[in-house]
Amino acid sequence: MFRWPWKSRETIHAEVDEELGYHLDRRAEDLVAEGMTREAADRTARAEFGDLDAARRGLIRTDLGAERAGRRRLSWDDWRLDLRAAWRGILHRPALAVAAVATLALGTGLGTAVFSVVHGVLLRPLPYPDPERLITVWQHDVQKDLAEYPAPGTFMDWRERSRSFDRMAAAIPYGHDLLDDPSRPVGLSAWQVTEGFFEALGIPLAAGRTFTADEYHDARAAVVVLGHALWRSRYGADSSIVGRRINLDGTPHLVIGVAAATLDFPDRTDVYTPQVLSEDQRALRRQTYWRVIGRLANGVTLDQAHEEASRISADLARERPQTDAAFRMTLVPLKEHLTGGVSLALYVLLGAVGLLFAIACANVASLLLAHGLARRRELAVRAALGAGRGRLARLMLLESALLAVLGGIVGVAVAYAGVPALLRLAPTALPRAEHIRVDLPVLAAALGATILTALLCGFIPARSLTRGDDGHLLRGGGSRTATGRRSGRALVIAEVAIALVLLVGAGLLGRSMRRLVSEDLGYDHRNRALLTLHFWDRSPTAEGRAVLLSEVLRRIGEVPGVTAVGAANALPLSREGSEMDPSFRLPGEPPAEPGRERIARLTIATPDYLRAMGTRLARGRFLSEADRAGGLPVAVVNETLARTTWPGEDPVGKQILTLGPTRAPGSGVLREVVGVVGDSRQRGLGEPAQAEVYVPHAHWPFGSMTIVAHSALPVESLRQSVEAAVWSVAPALTFSLERMETLLSETLATRRLVLALMMVFAGCAGLLAAVGIGGLVSLGVSQRTRELGIRMALGAERPAVIRLILSQGLSLAGVGVVAGLVGALALTRWLGALLYQTPTTDLVTYAGAGGLLLATAVVAAWLPARKATLVDPVTALRSE
Amino acid sequence: MPRSPLDLLQGTVSMLVLKALTWKPQHGYGISQWIRTRTEGALGLEDAALYQALHRLERRGWVSSEWGQSENNRRAKFYRLTAAGRAQLREESATWREYAAAVFRVLDARHVEG
Fold it and tell me: ipTM of this complex > 0.90?
C-alpha cells in the first residue's frame, strides 16, 4: 500500500518516550545486576541521566523540526522525480505526444479564440461609467411591429414627461464638408446632439469642453467637438486645435473640445455639433431618425422605468391619436442594443466549441488509455519497485498535465495570432469587435481550460489503469485491461455522439444559409454602385436640389460603362436615406381608425431608378420620363400591395390615395397605378415582403436622394469619372461610393462567420471522432493478433475477418450516432432563432449527419482492419 | 574558525557519538555504555546531552535511525552512521587531533636556552 513516510506529533512523542524509557530500564537492570535494589537502581539511573524533562522536551523539539524539514524536502523531491518521469514518458513516445498536443492545442486554441470573442463583445463592460444605467429609447410601432428611432416631437415629449432618467438626449446623423483646403473637400460624418448628450454617456472629453446651454439654444453658434479619430488623423492629436476654427461647409466653426477615444455611441464619428431644439420640431412626428439615449436616475430600476414608459405611451396615444396611437416608448439597455443581435449566436458558438473541447479531451484520454494498456508492463515494474497506486495515478495525471500545458501554450499562441486575422476577414460581422483580444481574463479562462483538460484526460486512464488491488497491479494483467477497454469504448461513443451534434448544428446553419441566399431580393445587387451625396448647402430649396440631382444623374449616365442610373429617397441596403412608411387609402374609403391603416413603404424614384436597380417588372410599365411635373399623378406598386389590396384583380388602372409632397397627415394625392413590380427586400435577404409604392420624383421633388448606377465596370474604376461628373454640376461636392454586393454581404457577415466557425468545429469534431474510432479498433486488433491469426490459420477468409473488425467499429459509431441524434434534438433548440425557414428537426440534416459519421467510421475502422488481415498467421500465432 | 568552549564541548560529544557508531548500529544506551567504558567515566558525559546530540546528528543527516530488536529482545531505537556522518567524523577528529597536538606541544615544552 502507498504510505506517506510522515510521522505525526503523537508518534514523535511516543517514540521519544519509548527511547528514553528503554535507556532508563536498561541502566536500572544493569545496576540491579550489580547488586542494587530495584528502587535504588531506578533512582540512580535517573540521576545519572541528567535533566530528564529538559532532555525530553529538547528531543521532541529537534525531531519535530526534522520532520517538518523532511516533509518539505521529501514531497518536493517526490514531485520532481515524478515530473521528470512524466516528461521522460512523453519524450519516449513522441508520436503520442505530438498527436495529443496537437489535439489539445486545437481544443484550447479554438476555445480561447471563441471565448475572447464572447468576452470582448458580450462580457467586457461598455466604456462608460455605470454602463448598466445607459438605456436606448425606441419608438415601437405596434402596427408594423418594428422598433424605430423616434421622431423629434416624440423625443421631446418623452424627455419632458419622463422622471426615471437623469438625462435623456438624442443624436441626429448629419454630414459636413471639411474645407480646410477648398479644392480637396473631405466628407465628414457628424452627430448633431441635444443638450445632455455627453453628460448622459458620462465620459469626460479628451480635451476642451462640451457645448454650453447657450450653444444648444442658438442656431448660429458655430461650435464643434472633434471626434477622437479625426483629431488624431488630421490634427496630429494636438490639443492646441481647441480654440481654433475649422471650415465646415464654408462656415468657420470654433473647435471647443475633442471627444474621448472610447465614445462610440451611436457610433464613432468625425464631429459633434449642437442640435437646437425648437417648438417647430414638436410637430415632426413621422420622420424617425433620432437616436435616443438616457441615463437612468439613481435608485430607479429598469422595471420602474418600463412602467413609466408605458404610462407615457398611453398618455401620448390618447392626446395625439392621429400620430402616436401606434407608438410605444420602449427601453432597451445600451449593451443589449449593441450586442442583442449576436449574443445568441456567440453563446451557441461557445457551446459548440465547448463540445469540440470535450471531444479533444476524450480523444487524448483514449490515446493515453490505449498507450497505458500498451505499457502495463512498465506500470507493473513501477509497482514492483514500490510505487503505490496513488503514486502511479499521480504519475499519469502529471503526464496528461504536461501534455495539457503544452497543448494550452500552443493553442493560446495560435489564438493570439489567429483571432485578429479572423476578425480582419470579417470586419463587420461583430459589434464591438475592437474590444476583442486575448488578454488577462481570456488567458485566465484558457488556463482554467488547460487544468480541466489535464484532469479530464488524465482521470479516466489513471483510474482504469490503476484499478484493482496491488497484486493485480504487480501481475500487470487481467481485469484492468478489460476496464481500460470499456472506458475506451465509452469515450469513443461519446466522441461520435458529440461530433454528430456539431455536424447537425453546422448542417442546419448551412441549409438555412442556402435557403436564405436563394431568396429573391427583388432587385439585382450585382454590378451596382450606390452613390450618396447631399446638396443641402448647394441649394436651400428642395426644388433646387431636385434640379441639381437630375443634372448629376444626366452626367453620370454619360460616364462610359454606366448603363443605367437612377435615384430614390431610400435605397435598399443603404445606411443613409429617409425611409417613409405612410398609410394609404383606396378612393371612396373612409380614413381608417389609427392603428388599422393600410401601410406601404413609399419610394420617391427617378424615371430610370427601377431599371437601374434591375427590379423585375410584373405588369404594366416602370416610371418613365413621361411622368413629368404637372403630369397625371401615377404610381407603381409591388406585387404584395397588389395582391393584398386587389386580390385576383388587375391592379393596373386602379387608383390609390397616398401621401403627397405637402406630407400633412390626412392629406393625400390620388394616383393611378401604371405598373406592378417584384417585392424589394430593403434590408437584405430574409426580410418579409412589405407593400410598396413608387412615385415619380418629378411629382415630388424630394431633396435627399441616393443614386444607384448600373455598370459592369468595377466600382473603384468608376470613381474618377463619377467624381468628374458630379463636380461638373456641384464643384467639390463630397460623396460616398459603395458596392451593393459589399453591402449585401455585410448583412450576411454575422451569419457567414457563425456558419464558417460551426463548419470548422464540426469538421474537427468528425475528424477527431474518426481518429478515436480508428485508434480503438487498431488497439483491439493489436491485442487480438493471436486470435485473428488462429482464425485465419483455421481458414477464415480475409473479407470475413475485415467484416468482423469493421462491425466492431460500426457498432461503436452506431451507438454514438443514436446518442448524438437524441442529443442534437435536445440541443439544437437553441439554434432555432438563428435559422431561416429551417426547422431544428430538419430530417435531411439529421440523416445526412448520421450517414456522414457512419461512413467516416467505416473508413476509420477499415484501415486497421486491412492491416490485421495482412498479418502472417504464423507470426500472429507466435505473438505474445 | 574560532570556536566557543560550548561549541567545542558539543562538537566533542558529537564526535564521540559518531565514533561510537563506526563499527555497527547501536542504540542510545549502548553508545552511552561504550563511551563510559572507553573513557572510564572520565568525561562525566550526561546521557541527556548524549541523546540531544544523537537527535541533532540525525536531523543533520549524519546518523539515521530505525527501530529494531535489542540484545534482550526489546524494541529499541538503533542509530546508524551515514556516509555524510562518516565524512564528518573524519573531519572532526582530524581537527581535534591538531588541536590536541598543539595543546600538548605547549604543555610538553621544555625550557631550552642558548
Answer: no
